[in-house]
Specification:
This protein has 238 residues and is mainly α. The chain is 62% helix and 10% strand. It folds into 2 domains: 3-161, Ribonuclease III domain (Ribonuclease iii, N-terminal Endonuclease Domain, Chain A, Orthogonal Bundle); 167-236, Double Stranded RNA Binding Domain (2-Layer Sandwich). It has helices at 3-15, 22-28, 32-37, 49-70, 76-86, 89-99, 101-104, 109-113, 120-138, 140-161, 167-178, 218-232; strands at 184-191, 198-205, 208-215.
Amino acid sequence: MSDAEDSLSIIQDNLGYVFQRPDLLELALTHPSYAHEHPEEGGDTYHNQRLEFLGDAVLDFLVAAWLYRTYPNFPEGPLTRLRATLVRTTTLAELAREIELGSALRLGRGEEEGGGRDRAANLCDVLEATVGALYIDGGLDAIWSRMEPWFQTQAEAILAERAYVDPKSRFQEWAQAEIGATPVYEIVREEGPDHAKMFTAQVRVEDEVAGRGRGASKRVAEQAAARSALNRYAYRRP
């Protein structure tokens, strides 16, 4: 068995699924840098980006439908934030590591030497591409029957830590419970031209500046300030 065939076998074992069309899995594992350096294997466009596009949409739907069924008392806002946390790059990259997709990635030499095999963006992309390949080969059940237990575990951990709640809401909850005060936000600086402004926000609790943050909008800057406050102030105060 060749190294490529061995890699495909390991991934299928980890997934608990045997592809009817193993070429789909091979395509899912092919990074654009590899296709560019090996046009003889299928051309410069023989890489996983189209499957990634498909898998991203399929996974977003499956996670949303599962959250809707699993948490019937959650309103739209928390469901949206929980879904975003579950399908963000770092979360999907961790799932890719568990399936060992990184070790099976087909990378170009430069990407390989640059640490691309463990780069979160590459791992997220190959996970989504693998989902796309699973969907074409076996349908929605082939995906979710294998991935639901993992997402269940992740969702429980996220809910336990309230990591799905945005930083402003988390800091407000903490400040009101622990200090009896509501955080106050203000924009203290605006920089750059109108089409590319950067804002600096600060958040105060009573008379103390609890955190500062920057962002391309006032909302993003305030969220960054709240995150700073959570890291530097809330969790360290006795």
